[in-house]
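Hey, quick one: can you model this chain's 3D structure?
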Amino acid sequence: MGSGRWSADAYETAERLRGGKSAFAYSDSGARSVHPGLDPFDVGKRESRDSAEHPDSLAIAVLFDVTGSMGTVPRALQKKLPRLLGLLKEGGYAADPQLMFGAIGDATCDSAPLQVGQFESDNRMDSDLGRILLEGGGGGQKTESYELAMYFMARHTATDCFEKRGKRGYLFIIGDEMPYPAVKPREVSSWIGDELPQPVAIRNLIAQLTRRWDTYYILPEGACYAGDGQVLGTWRALLGQNVIELADLNAVCETIALTVGLGEETIDLDEGLADLNDVGSAAGPTVGRALAVIGAYRGARQGGVTRRRARALRSAPVRRALPASHGEGTSQAFPAGSVLL
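Sure thing. Here's the predicted structure for all 341 residues.
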């Protein structure tokens, strides 16, 4: 997967052909089970690979909790998809980004606790979003099966950015609750198809995950547990400063794009916020607050000379016109496993 190129025109055409109908036709049609194209059971690995078309692939995965109040997240993200791709590509944040979208529920009670798409470079990523089942369930105990999704990402993905260049991909988990304390063998067997001899403790899993994936947790305002100290404390214990509180869900695409740009050292935070202004996004203040800690840390690591050099090497100045959004109203913050060991 990962061939082809993103087209804003194709996105606009698909929007027109829907004639105002939902982009999430699979879920809205009354589906009750995971779409076959997103079923993680016995899939082997989801792959992000280089090609002549995309010689410097960078894997970016976005997994969102779709339980309860979080079910609006993929709808918001789908509307802003052109903005995300515009900043990543036209802004020069990443040469060949390949995006994968997926969804997280609760394996103790949901019909589709894990949904995982393919890594794509073209408009098929929009199709994967549209296949997500917005189940809206959840267990109601301030926990969802984030650990099952992280297990899949740690053990069932293969990326050339890591295998060929030693560069980790980016994983964004958008949610408002805590993971369960361990990956359960029964759930892994039922939903992924692996047989585990014993549970995998969440801290051991995070150490495996962060070796390959620069992992971020985004908690948006308006979610059920927004600002909850227990939820934030749990994730900060696991991911350190890579926990992002976002005051406006509509800024999620811009937040993801600038986080990647900061990690790739193609921008500093001030440059990224200027880019948002250039493309007509009103999300700058929200994103600036959300990424203040990560931006300051990245800036201290890079130093002004490194940032200016990276900026000069960008292939396309962001001040050209980028695709407008619809309905608009870290690479590594810690060395892999250092938070946990």
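One thing worth noting: DSSP finds 14 helices and twelve strands in the chain.
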